[in-house]
Amino acid sequence: MQRRTTLLIAILSGVGLLLGAACGNSASPSSTSSAAAKTLVVDDAYTWDFSKDTDPSRGGVDFDADPFFHAIYDSLLTFKLGDSATPIPLVAESYTASADAKTFTFKIRKDVKFADGTALNARDVEFTYNRLLNLHDNPVYLLDGITSMKATDDYTFVLVSSVANPAIPFIVTNPALGIINSKLLTAHGGSAATDAAKTDTAHDFLGTTSVGSGPYTMASVNTSQVVLKANAKYWGPDKPNFGTVIFRNVAAATQLIEIQKASNQIELSLSGDQAASLKGNSKLTVTSFTSPNITFAFCNQKTVPACGNVHFVNAIRYGIDYQSLVSVAGAGAAQAPGVVPTQFLGALTQAQAVKRDVAKAKSELQASGIANPTIQLDYTISSTGLNDSLAAKIKANLADVGITANLNGQPSSIATPNYRGAKYQLGLAGWAPDYPDPNDYQAFLPGQLVGKRAGWLTGAAPAIEDLGARAGAAADNATRGKLYQQLQTLLNQESPMLPLIQPGQSVVGTNNLTNVIYSPVWYLDLAAIGTH
Amino acid sequence: MSAAVINSNNRLTTAWRRIPGAWRQPLTVVGLVLAASWLVVALLAPWISPQDPLAQGPALYQAPSAAHLLGTDELGRDVFSRVLWGARISIPLAMLLVSLAFTIGGTLGGLAGYLGGWVDEVVMRGADFVFAVPTILLAMAVVAALGPGLFHAVLAVVLVSWPGIARVVRGLVRTTMESEYVAVGRLLGSPTHRALTVDVLPNVAGPVIVLAALEIGNAILLLSALSFLGLGARPPDAEWGSMVSTGAQHFEAWWIGVFPGVAIVSIVLAFNFLGDSLRDAFDPKAIIKARGA
Amino acid sequence: MALVFLCLGVSVMAFVLTHIVPNDPAVANLGDRASSDPVAVRLYREHFGLDKPLPVQYVVYLGNLLHGDLGESEQSRRAVRTDLAEYIPATAELAITSMVLACLLGITLGVIAALRRNRLTDQVLRVVSLGGMSTPQFWLALVALYVFFYQLSWVPGSGRLDAAVLPPPHLTGLFTIDSLAAGQFDVFVNSVQHLILPACVLAAFNMGLFTRFTRSAVLEVLENDYVRTARAKGLPELTVVFRHVLRAASPPILTVVGLAFGNVMTGTVLVENIFSWPGIGQYSYRSATALDLPAIVGVMLFVAIVYILVNMVVDILYGVVDPRIRLA
Fold first, then answer.
1. Beta strand pairing call for A334-335 and A497-502
2. Residues 6+ apart with CB under 8 A from B186
3. Which among B133, B217, B228 has the least Cβ separation from residue C10?
4. Which of these, C44, C8, C3, lies nearest to C24 by C-alpha position?
């Protein structure tokens, strides 16, 4: 008994110490029960912790995190509500591009204030861009090819690219490039120096405070929700409509139930079917649209030599019943006519899309000389179950042609490294735009990011690679559009890439809300949302 | 001396004699009938299910009707057929799992109880350790590491369920070994293997059978939970847990998720009815203590 | 001693488990483009010490553990200790409520079943309790949500509070207690409304378990002479049950209650995921599926410590309720 008690006390005090130390670190939520102004609730079936993402230079370019980065941080340029084709001024009042599309000069507004009242100038822009580059975290690719980022005076910022890159005005709208208050962040461990990856210690600070000039500021964050408060000192002409915005992490099934009892609420993660089931509810507005994300399949030559056989790939290409895939992908879903989504410059039209032709598929299979092929269909199990449904359809489609596809759906932790490590056979994957410009889709070419995952290496298709290089460097939009269309027509004939669909996406909001409009860059502009 | 022998054997025989009494209980019969029906379904699913469980029909989200007894799911598959085929996955796997767990747990527990000393110490410390880590955490970690799939889920559950069995078997072996009649047998010079087969085994077998019935129910629950979390069965397999998980995405079509759940409840309940009745017939305490977690 | 053994065991096991995975956490956790960027991958591996040989990683981990440092979560990029401190109160509130419910109901029903042995009441309670033990918690949670929230609107939906209700000032992290301490009665009511459904779902299994074990423990005691004596003395039935029977039957019941904390943990993983309850159940599920080693070990250690603690308290309570053990 004596010994037991001693041990117990020892353990108790051990746990106490552990927890005591931990509690010291955790931020205690503040209590202001009386909400002074209206509260907007946005639910998203978020894949992970909000807390990871509160540093835009690390957590940016995450689809789920972008809406609140966009609300907290202002970037150089932005888009008009509902548009993603013409960048317009925000922190930069104007910009000029050199004729060779290599040098971009941004004139910074003089009246922009951070939430703490500090005035924003070009030094902050320089700090933000250099920090993102030197942290070398997820969003670093936004600055690929950039050789110089300098504030030439207090209100001028110049970006220089080593290659012609007409996509830069589109890239700088990204919420990951929202301007950071450099004085405030430097005072709390922030660094933009070349060794920032190791010396920057601002992560914990950014977990409790936001340092932007946007219409909202971050009040608190934990795994289940981010609370935003209106920025009382917001410099822009349109003040935020809500005193508080709560961005919650809620499973889709629960969202479906909750929205029917709510007001001032938006659900982002409902599948097409779920959203369709709400159409009859007069208190809700269901908006369905075609997602700019494309779902594509690819035949990996590295794991399946037959994928190098164009007839075999074509047997798959013409064997897939694209309309049957569209039918399970929700309201608003459409076939992806090429790798570039229909919303962007250079996209193919639906008339140019590949159509199912079982007879042609069978003759192509015969021409390939491969009898009774069996291939594994690899994919990530998605939370909405969409990939499972698509894979099941593809399996049934290919069976009609005489190709056996074995489904191999895995959770993301297993599937993602396999996909990225080019270990898929017949892969089913998705691509969300990094910025709304066809240059983002160079990734699908031989030797590029997605190309390599299909074992499609540099030199594999010289004609396609040459056309891709010309499309990427062209400066004027008419030429670029034409070249990208040619490129995709070629891809649809000779590449291992099989664009399938652009899924339907639905935003469901209570019908007292206005401006609940989807954006391919930041998903939802929280600051624009108002009430009737 | 002879009185002691009679006494000890008495307890065992009384227990066995009580079993027919247990059958007279209505719930035991219900359990037996349910369990037997599910076994039959598992065996005959290919012949009795109206449709291919993977066949996608044109009618999506159909409510239960004469054409589709339990409705259709989001791909137009017949829910009734899928529920029947589900038995072919859950029941054999649960049995495989329980026999693996009993082989490992029984052997280790038996050795620990029979040999005692450091073997006992090592096995029981190992069991304590697994006990302290919650089942599902360990199972999730194993499955996450090995990759999902039903077989890995089975391995994971075996890994977490052997200690319970080892404890019971060890306890029973110890009690029997310490009882007077085994001591007497030794004194009289009967060989070790005789003590094991004649004295120890029969005393251990009864409670172990009860435990097995209860464990099958638990195994089905845990496997379906792992599948529900996306760590067990993989689509398009008709597995009950993953069917419930699909159903959760489609609340409006409640039949997609409700019926697979009813299937799980009914089969686990059947085994629990059986196990509970049998347990009343045997010594309840030993089993109670081992099965807490 | 047991604790040191446990820490070593849990951490070794988690290390082995997460390292037999052929996949690189850097590639799994970095973004699409960054994962193909060798510099980003190298920085990630250096940051989490993954570039060092496994034994070195383990020694470093143990060294940090001695200082109460559980490392940094690869998912949240915060100290695991900070994460745990944030999620544990939510789970504690849910788990404790469900255990109290399960004990109250289970023990009461168990006593009733024993006193009405083999009568109709006993059979009905047998179905109820075994039913509780046979129902998959994930399914029960969904059905309960559908019926009581969606159809009947008796309870609010997911989460610990309504979206518009702000948490009470942090004291214990248990919203029910904190709100009362701060005098925010409306917050208290809201948190109880949110707590009730998940706690009931979580309690179902243990309620069944406790009913069964209480029943058999009480039956055994009822056969004893002193119970008959007490009854013969003409003591009221309630006095007999509470003063004599329940007390004598409590050691096995206590054992089961102690062991049942394991069930609660399993339940929380499922229930928290469905009710969007921000506790360690949700945290551990996400960590496990993302192979977030420091987080997995952190949760396992914490839960194991709680388990040991609870069972030690049970041992001590043994002495309190059972005079024989106190003498020994």
1. antiparallel
2. B195
3. B133
4. C44
- What is the tens place of the pLDDT at every residue in A65-123? 888 899 999 999 999 988 888 899 999 999 999 988 899 999 999 999 999 999 999 99
Q: Do C71 and C11 touch, CB atoms closer than 8 A?
A: no
Q: Nearest Cα to C91, choosing from C258, C285, C221? A: C285
Select from C139, C143, C285 the Cβ nearest to the Cβ of B229: C285
Neighbours of C86 (CB within 10 A): 25
Chains that touch C (3 or more CB pairs under 8 A): A, B
B133 to chain C: closest CA residue: C304
Contact B288 C216 (CB under 8 A): yes
Rounded mean pLDDT, A442-470:
94
pTM: 0.81
Q: Considering only alpha carbons, which residue of chain A is nearest residue B228?
A: A383
Across the interface, which of B75, B234, B249 has its CB nearest the CB of A253? B249
The sign of the CA dihedral C9, C10, C13, C16 is negative
The answer to whether the beta carbons of residues C197 and C101 sit under 8 Å apart is no
Residues A394/A403, Cβ–Cβ less than 8 Å: no
The answer for C 108-127 residues in CB contact with A (under 8 A) is none
**Contact list, C37 vs chain A (CB under 8 Å):** 136, 140-141
Each residue of C61-76: pLDDT tens digit? Answer: 888 888 888 888 877 7
Instruction: Find, among B35, B40, B72, the residue nearest to B56 by Cα.
Output: B72
Cα distance from N-terminal residue to C-terminal residue, chain B: 39
Q: Is C317 near chain A, with CB under 8 Å?
A: no
Give residues 304 to 323 of C whose Cβ lies within 8 Å of B: 304, 307-308
pLDDT at B195: 64
Least confident of A370-374, A515-519, B21-25, C247-251: B21-25
User: What pLDDT does residue C1 have?
Assistant: 60
Q: Enumerate the H helices of C24-144 as residue ranges.
A: 25-29, 38-47, 54-66, 80-115, 120-134, 137-144
Q: Please measure the distance between the N-terminal and C-terminal CA atoms of chain A and give it in whole angstroms.
A: 70
* Nearest CA-CA partner of C98 in C207, C17, C7, C20: C207
C182 close to C77: Cβ distance less than 8 angstroms: no
**CA B170/CA A2 separation, integer angstroms:** 28
CA gap A11, A8 in Å, rounded:
5
Q: Considering only residues 244 to 283 of chain B, which have any Cβ-Cβ distance to chain C shorter than 8 Å?
A: 244-245, 247-248, 251, 254, 257-258, 261, 264-265, 268-269, 272-273, 276, 280
Over residues B21-64, the pLDDT tens digits come to 555 678 888 899 999 999 999 999 899 988 888 887 778 888 89
Say whether residue A61 is in contact with chain C using an 8 A CB cutoff. Answer: yes
Contact B67, B184 (CB under 8 A): no
Asked if residue B234 has pLDDT above 70, the reply is yes
